[in-house]
Amino acid sequence: MYYLFSGFKLDSDKRELSYQSKTVTLTKQNFQLLLYFVQNPNAVINKDELIKHVWNGRVVADNSIDQSIYKLKKILTSVKEENYFETVYGLGIKFLPPVETGSSEIIESPQQRYGLNYWIIAALFAVLVGLSFYFWWHKQNLPLNNPSKNSIIVLPNNSLNSQNDWLSSSTDLYVKKMLNQSPKVFLKDFSKKPKNLNQEQYLESLWKSNPLLKVVTSEVGFLLNEFMIKLVIKDKAGEIAQKEFKNKNLSTVYADALAWLNTEFKLSPESLENTEIIPQEPYLLELYLRGLSALRQHKTDQAINYFELCLEKDADFHLATLELTELLDRKGDAQKALALLDTLLSITAQPELKIEATNQKGGILLRQGKPKEAKQLYLSLLNNKEFSGYQGLFDTRYKLALVYRSLAQKQQALEQFDALEMALIESDDYTTLADTYQVKASLLLDLGQTKEALNYAHKAMELFVRQGNLIGQAKTHSVLARIAKEEAHYQAAMVHLKQSLNITKALKSKFGTGATLNEIISVLILQGKINQAWTLNQELEKIAIEIDFNAMLLASKKYTIILAQYRKHWQEAGLYLKEHLEIAQAGDNKLAIVENNFLSLSLMLEQEKYDNIEKKIEQLENYINESNEQGLRVRLNLIKARYLFQTQHQQEAIALLSSSKIVAKAKLYKQSIIDINNLLAKIYLKQNKAQQVLKVLQESQGYKPVAMPFLLLQSKANLQLNNVTKAIKQANRCKLNAHDLWTSANELYLTELLKIKKSEE
Q1: Is there a domain that residue 666 lies in?
Q2: Residues with Cβ < 8 Å from 104, sequence gap 6 or more?
């Protein structure tokens, strides 16, 4: 039997895949997986089916299945770019291409038939031996039972009388932390509710996605020297169960309440018996709950004090440790937080506590500029089978993907997002899934996969619209704008960005407004709209200062330097360059310091000031050699080539640019290719090699360069070739599209062209 799809032929008898008669290499696992998909085209297949039919019922980690599907997709797309799989939210994955089937039987000679019969007998014997071994192995290694998880949301306490009611304001937080210790629970986070939705609207949006979602509400009180907690479990149809618990001992009340939840949701009781989670001392639990209450009221110092008192009473009460480390990190005492986390990781036996501690530690390492250490930490966690099935690993994999991206290891980042996507579609965490789609779209765009990026951006938008998440929609509009910008569709990009800006301003989200302004400014600069960009950048800087967000402030300072440089306000640019460096150094932001060096080199070259330029180039060389970031290497080579050109070493500059262009093309660094060709054109123009100028600029055409200096260089090359009419036409087009970048010197050049044309007539 053979199967035909998208130009491929999968022969189940020969166990071979080919494309237009050329064999495509598949591993045995690749083949089995693809065979099952083509045998079930357009069917939505979940992981349980794959385990049963492809892995023959063996115990397989979710991550192994995700990676196998990703590798298969990679093999197919490397031969022919197409969408082969579609993730169907909450259900599984579907094979998209239409599949035709046929028989692969052929007419055989008697000799062939004899030989075939021999091999059939041998194969049958091998199968019998294999089946005997399989049944023996299966008996020894029964597949683990993997029932679907309980999807639960715990609502804030509805008996909250005042902000000072510590019991009311902390109960839901504590119940969530308790339930989170079980791998059979998937918790929805109410704090992620979009601000534009009320509680009822939010629950309706959740039930649309997962009708089986359970809602837990609570009432608490203290009456006649007894603590009281009443828990109610509801589903979409209404109340399922409720129970009230009373006792003078606070720990007993919570233990009883959570034991009841354990029974109702059929969870494992082990975690509830651990004193790391439920302390035996009632006063200790009260301190912890008061800390949670203070945290909810944003009283950070008071919360720290409560959690420190908890640990003084009992150093093994690790829930308090995790709250304290997060607050210490927030207050800037990262070293103390790391010390506490290392201690916790060395002694705790609770998987969910280890996962949360590891995720916290990784976040601190990232902020300290240690992404490689964070990467190893996250990898060791994900590779440990002990933690399989816990919700916290979603956060781990998401952070690992972002680490890979920060290290410019974009393909590895994409692999992690692919694995995360596969895991999320079998949960009902469509909030994280939408975020994953949105970030994945941005990453695919960085990798030059514009079509795929657009597909994922639309998926993200669909999910954000379904859940009524306006901030998510605003972020996705920004990604869609980046995609449009990549295709040089600046008008479409601005439409998306204006929609994003309208949303963020309506929601009074300063962070969202600042992030959108950042994107708008970059589009305006590309088009040469310097004055408009300058005005918006002042607004961006103001927001960055108001929300005290250094990354946004650094972006604003960077734009200020670039815009001052375009205006040739050198002293102003120098002052802002110094400010940018001070902010970067204060936050120990290595990437921002590297960016500052690039900005500094650009200013030096613009002013033809070459003092210390070689020293700065050497510093960047050392950083790039350590980090192996090819994108930065190409960018530095452009700087070096400009320096060689300006110091009359033209041939060396050409050689460096030519070698750099090979790397840029391989990595699909579109803007770098354009910049390289523009600089090559300037050099060839100076050498009076007009045909060479036009040749390299023609190469840029496919990457959609902006008007300035591309059109101006074309114009000057045509002038050298005495094509004056063409030179005038290109100069006028440049003037029309370059906006504020069109200078008085450029206007003088156009005037001279018109004089030449008039004299010819």
Answers
A1: no
A2: 1, 2, 11, 12, 13, 14
